[in-house]
Amino acid sequence: MSAIVYEHVGKSYPTGKGQSFQALSDVSLTVPDGEIFGVIGSSGAGKSTLLRMVNGLELPTEGHVNVLGQEPASLKGRELRLLRRQIGMIFQHYNLLSSKTIAENVAIPLVLSHTPKDEIARKVSQMLELVGLEDKHNVYPSQLSGGQRQRVGIARALVTNPKILLCDEATSALDPLTTVQILKLLQRINHEYGITIMLITHQMSVIAKACNYVAVVEHGRLIEQGPVGRVFAHPVQPLTRKFVNTVVPNTLNEDLRNRIDQGDEGTVVQFSYTDDGAKTLLADIRKAYDGNVSLLYANEVPLRNVTVGKIVLGFSGGSGGSSALSGRIGELVRNDPKLEAEVLHD
């Protein structure tokens, strides 16, 4: 089941004199129900526009956006309000009212929907306990740290029991330690309540720590998407590779790169894998190859639900030459769907 579906979505803004700016172009993607889905791109890529279409704050000029079986662009008045009650949203700069206490800030969506006072009190207490701020009812935003303010924002977004939570650069204003804490809280909320979370970010480390799926947006176009493990292990587009490289370094040091380019390390192959894809790789290679094998580079990074890694090996002196080696490596890759190989030097 899908919580959010974008079908050939485009968005343009008039800039005057008959000109327009194309913020999104032909974007199609599906956010599965109950998952954490990340959208990453550079500043101005169209991420926020994409996110704000979910609750109808932005309307597509082409295509369709379906949310929980409804199309926000076609709803008005009460119907749109009812859909928005099922969609919570948290922001980069928290958007808290400085003149109201923490409890009063969390209560705002319930007050606006004319919820009875005793129910408001109960739900606010429940949400503040969930985010670890049960002792902060009567303090003001100025008395809290950035991480605590974001927890208030999360509590406010959850107080209406939404089915979808939108996160607009929710951790970009936080320090690394606080970012990890907020991401763990979002994972807990997703796990315990089954809420679909769609978050946008310009930090691939956020995708790595929190998400099950990722979409990469560049200049308003969707250029790559898929499960986080697959995209991290086998990025296709140049921008995706740059993002992944910030988390899973794929840069060999200059001295090693020069030796490889000059042929000093023989035939060099880079193996990319997920989870236990390389568990028996070295043993299998020793059985299949009778020459010398050198380990030139290795790196492994745990993501949220999968581990990705790279191993670079140098081969020399084997019988049958490079064609025989290629056949043996091809057989290993065919027998293990979690393993891929790329020849860096032949």
Automatic annotation (TrEMBL):
**Domain ABC transporter residue range list:** 4-244
Q: Note one Pfam family from the annotation.
A: ABC_tran
Tell me which UniProt keywords the record has, alphabetically: Amino-acid transport, ATP-binding, Cell membrane, Membrane, Nucleotide-binding, Translocase, Transport
Q: Origin, by domain of life?
A: Bacteria
What's in the GO CC field? plasma membrane
What one GO molecular function would you report for this record?
A: ATP binding
BP GO terms, sorted? amino acid transport
Keyword Membrane among record annotations: yes
The annotated subunit structure for this chain is: Homodimer. Forms a membrane-associated complex with FtsX.
> Which family does the record claim for this protein?
Belongs to the ABC transporter superfamily.
Q: What does this protein do?
A: Part of the ABC transporter FtsEX involved in cellular division. Has ATPase activity.
Name of the featured protein? ABC transporter
List the source organism: Bifidobacterium simiarum
Mind giving the lineage of the organism this protein is from? Bacteria, Bacillati, Actinomycetota, Actinomycetes, Bifidobacteriales
